[in-house]
Amino acid sequence: MILQLLESQNISKDHYLLKFQFDGSKEIPQPGQFIEIKVNQLTDPLLRRPISIFNYEDNKLEIIIQKVGKATDILCSSKYDSLDIIGPFGKGFTIAQNEKVLLIGGGVGNAPLYYLAKTLKNSNCNITYIYGSRSSQYVYLLEEYQALCNEFYITTDDGSIGQKGFTTDILKEIFKNDYSAIYTCGPLSMMKTIHEITKNANLEVSLENYFGCGIGICSGCTIETINGLKRACVDGPIFNASELVWESLI
To answer: Do 201 and 128 fall within a single domain?
Structure first.
């Protein structure tokens, strides 16, 4: 489908917010799902690029793109009237109701957690959020995140904003195993450590695998779980941490 691009905004170093008109008659995106974007009409880059959904409201679909290579550089740098997008795809987060929850994001992994936090707030949840980034240069839309949360922490590798260190450092300080659900997205090493700290907690992780097709045909995103091999694009990208064979992922 061709979606009209309403806005492209630089929100922090190498991070861009893109907003699209999304026909309400289409499937409503859920927190944790992703879309696939055709970068251009040429054969290079050939494959679509998977991007998580940052927000959806009033028939407006929003994504955050981090410039990390040729395809994302094209998407962030070029001016479009519209883009060829398919989706939403994948299994989303489980939405808690009237519960105390914890969200932990690392870098661009914070992006899908915004829509989740907004949905959880609408479900009357008490939300604690740990926002991690490399430095203040890469932090985006901080006030929007804070507005959704009952408790909010920020950490940066260099200490340029918030507490110096990692999200897992703050997690060790505040974790009391009294959260009904924990949600995280970010680097695999971060999520593995979160799993180790929280042990038997109800932890859902978003795997940022590269999804070549997005619909399970190419099997390029196959991962190992305790229940056998799974395709992250259709069986995920959201998984319970206890399902995953972390050694094979890392």
So the answer is: yes
Band (pLDDT 50/70/90 cuts) for residue 10 is very high
List the domain range (segments joined by +) for residue 65: 2-89
110 with 33, same domain? Answer: no
Q: Domain holding 30: CATH number?
A: 2.40.30.10
Structure tokens at 200: 């038997």
- Does residue 132 sit in the same domain as residue 171? yes
The answer, as to whether pTM is greater than 0.85, is yes
Handedness of CA 82, 86, 91, 97 (dihedral sign): positive
Confidence tier at 79 by pLDDT (50, 70, 90): low
Q: Could you tell me which of 99, 113, 155, 109 has the C-alpha nearest to residue 130? A: 155
75 and 114 together in one domain? no
pLDDT reported for residue 34: 96
Residues listed for the chain? 250
